[in-house]
Specification:
Layout: H1 2-23, H2 27-46, H3 50-59, H4 63-80, H5 85-97, E1 106-114, E2 123-130, E3 140-145, E4 152-154, E5 165-170, E6 178-185, E7 195-203, E8 206-210, E9 227-230, E10 236-241, E11 246-251, E12 265-282, E13 285-296, E14 299-313, E15 319-328, E16 333-335, E17 341-344, E18 347-351, E19 359-363, E20 370-373, E21 377-383, E22 386-391, E23 397-402, E24 409-412, E25 416-420, E26 424-429, E27 452-457, E28 464-467, E29 470-475, E30 489-494, E31 499-504, E32 512-517, E33 523-526, E34 529-533, E35 542-547, E36 553-557, E37 563-567, E38 570-580, E39 587-596, E40 604-612, E41 623-625, E42 628-633, E43 642-649, E44 654-659
Antiparallel strand pairs: 1-2, 2-3, 3-4, 5-6, 6-7, 7-8, 9-10, 9-12, 10-11, 12-13, 13-14, 14-15, 16-37, 17-18, 18-19, 19-20, 21-22, 22-23, 23-24, 25-26, 26-27, 27-28, 29-30, 30-31, 31-32, 33-34, 34-35, 35-36, 37-38, 38-39, 39-40, 41-42, 42-43, 43-44
């Protein structure tokens, strides 16, 4: 009864809108329209236009024509998915024999052909929709063809079957059975729109729909309630989730021009339930990751942050949410190397060049610089109230401390190229046999080699060797500082005849090679693409963009560079080189910084300078983090060193370099 009432309300809402539109016309206008229609009909009866008659015939519904369109669509999708002709013939015959298309009364809107359960046999998922009339939700179905089992059809009145859907399959509850996860997008707008979410377990040759955790009222909008609280401080919020009885503070943009409240107040929350469902890994097991859109005081159009959830199931099928966190909206960035400046929860953390490269933090507006410890950090990652870094003051040990500088502890004796994911700390070091549980190394390597990739838990336990011959590695898409429970680990390896780039799970399993290149260029991951900076005869002048979905490559030329990064959809590169003037004793450094689109288009020189430096000094690379693009200069001793930030004056269309430290 509840679902029927929801559907009735949806239909009444649509009819109300239609009635409102037509009600806006006057009676006279209605009579004029009727008269014109009668005249047009009479004219057509006296002297029919052959072209108009043909258009009318083609516009009428034809089951035979729809059936042929279904077959055409099937082969288009089969070709796109690289399905063989024989396999395609078998799958199409199954759909026709089982009358899935009902002689053309059903339209094929979606198709997936793959070995879903991993047993070596092709499976199929087909989505169909009522074809004769423009349907409401529920007018269709999703058909499962698994092995030789009887096909299973999922039908649900709250689900749209328009073909706007996402599908993936994985053992997300670690019971050695595959689950198929569906997200079917509807016609709703606002926030992330509406979508129907469903999880299907394939076990013992049967399909069973699993429950998703939810404390929302709408069945198709399953998710968890989150209250968005505006704090009495500019651009500051917190999120409270009753499910966990936990409150998380974070930064976000207030509505421009509105006053900040005098005290904390609930001003928004979650909208439309879960979206962006994807497989993740947590404590050595597969789980389901889901997101929720959080809006602020400006209504659903005012996106403030994203709530993330990890979902699992008990043995009896009871769903549970095991973890949640907040990802702030706003800037996106990626670096091709480990940086010494990063942002977290209102502070920048960095190695201060004005105070012996000690570990510092400063507020987002540049105020209240604070030395946290007399240590030299070789790399910085901040997450969940902890700072992880390579301690160059202690033989490159891997350490962590609280973000206020207290509680420093050593996690292991030596490491480099530090990164932190959702559960693990990753780093490179020399070979230690006791951590090689998988037997990756068969002969004792040279003692000085330090290109072995390890992971360990954040407290330093359960260390494990996961890859060898690593020259560079990156966690998947976006900022390297965010918690990563889903995605992949990308590695750049030297194989003797070139550079191989591969990906593996976040636990170092299921490694597969993606591509190979010549040279020693750096890679970075951004927006579903891998960027590889070619090194051609010592001059870096080309970048290859590799699409991680379809493997398509795009090669574009760029100005000579020493390092590059990406910030908010633009590539930034720095060309810093030493020019020796024979008439002067001092060396001169020429520095140029460029900005361009993600395909190298619209390249512009945004900064240029020349200055003297000390012998053996250098210009450090660019790095991006929340809030902008930073770089460092090394001057003569009397001028000191410091951090600089690139800033754009959009009104004047000018770029400035601001001394940040």
């Amino acid at each position: 009864m509840k679902k029927q009432m929801k559907r009735i309300k949806r239909v009444l809402g649509i009819l109300l809108c239609i009635g409102f539109v037509f009600g806006c016309a006057s009676n006279k206008e209605g009579e004029d329209v009727k008269r014109m229609q009668e005249e047009e009909t009479a004219a057509n009866e006296e002297d029919p236009d052959p072209e108009k008659v043909q258009e009318k015939i083609q516009g009428e519904f034809s089951p035979e024509r729809q059936l042929q369109q279904n077959k055409d669509f099937f082969w288009e999708e089969a070709d796109r998915q690289k399905v063989g002709w024989q396999e395609g013939e078998t799958c199409l015959k199954s759909l026709l024999d089982d009358n899935v298309f009902q002689g053309g009364k059903k339209k094929l809107t979606g198709l997936r052909i793959d070995d879903i359960d991993g047993n070596g046999q092709v499976d199929m998922l087909a989505m169909v929709l009522d074809a004769e009339e423009t349907p409401f939700y529920g007018s269709g179905g999703l058909w499962f063809y698994m092995n030789e089992d009887e096909p299973y059809c999922f039908e649900e009145e709250d689900c749209s079957f328009y073909g706007w859907f996402d599908l993936f399959w994985s053992d997300i509850d670690s019971d050695e059975n595959v689950e198929v996860v569906l997200s079917a997008q509807g016609t709703g707008c606002g926030a992330v729109g509406d979508s129907y979410k469903a999880v299907f377990k394939y076990k013992n040759h049967t399909i069973e729909k699993m429950e998703l955790p939810s404390d929302l009222e709408e069945d198709y909008d399953c998710g968890l309630r989150v209250d968005l609280i505006q704090e009495p401080e500019a651009n500051r919020y917190s999120a409270y989730c009753p499910y966990f009885d936990e409150r998380i503070f974070f930064g976000g943009e207030n509505v421009e021009g509105w006053d900040v409240p005098c005290e904390a107040r609930v001003t928004g929350g979650n909208a439309r339930g879960f979206y962006d469902l994807c497989p993740a890994e947590y404590e050595g097991k597969k789980v389901l990751q889901a997101s929720e859109y959080l809006y602020g005081e400006g209504g659903t159009a005012h996106g403030v942050a994203t709530a993330k959830f990890l979902i699992s199931w008990e043995e009896d099928g009871t769903p549970k949410v095991i973890k949640w966190w907040i990802e702030e909206n706003g800037d996106s960035w990626a670096n091709s190397y480990i940086t010494t400046i990063c942002y977290d929860n209102g502070y920048y953390y960095y190695a201060s060049e004005l105070d012996h490269f000690y570990l510092y933090r400063v507020r987002e507006d540049g105020s209240e610089p604070q030395r946290l410890a007399k240590v030299h950090p070789g790399g910085l990652c901040v997450q969940d109230g902890k700072i992880y870094f390579i301690n160059l003051s202690d033989g490159q040990s891997v350490c962590r401390m609280n973000t206020d500088g207290t509680g420093m502890e050593k996690l292991c004796e030596m490491g480099q190229k530090l990164q932190v994911g959702g559960e693990y700390v990753y780093f490179c070091s020399t070979y230690e046999k006791e951590f090689d549980q998988s037997g990756l190394v068969t002969s004792e390597p040279a003692e000085h080699k330090d290109n072995f990739l390890y992971l360990m838990k954040k407290d330093g336990t359960d260390r494990k060797l996961i890859a060898t011959d690593i020259f560079q590695y990156l966690l998947s898409d976006g900022s390297m500082q965010g918690a990563k429970y889903s995605g992949s680990l990308f590695c750049k390896k030297w194989l003797g005849d070139g550079i191989a780039i591969s990906k593996m799970s976040l636990e170092g399993e299921n490694e597969e090679e993606l591509c190979r290149y010549d040279g020693w260029g750096q890679i970075l991951i951004y927006g579903g693409n891998l960027y590889y900076g070619e090194d051609i005869y010592g001059e870096r002048e080309r970048i290859i963009r590799y699409n991680l979905q379809d493997g398509e490559e795009t090669i574009f030329c760029v100005p000579p560079y020493t390092d590059y990064c990406i910030y908010n959809g633009y590539i930034y590169s720095i060309d810093a080189r030493q020019n020796i003037d024979a008439r002067q004793k001092d060396d001169k450094y020429e520095v140029k910084i460029y900005r361009m689109g993600l395909s190298g288009e619209n390249c512009e020189l945004i900064y240029q300078n020349s200055f003297s430096i000390e012998p053996n000094a250098y210009i450090s690379a660019l790095c991006a983090t929340k809030g902008g693009v930073f770089f460092r200069k090394h001057f003569l001793k009397e001028e000191r060193s410091g951090w600089f930030k690139l800033e754009e004056d959009r009104e004047k269309k000018e770029w400035h370099v601001k001394r940040w430290e």
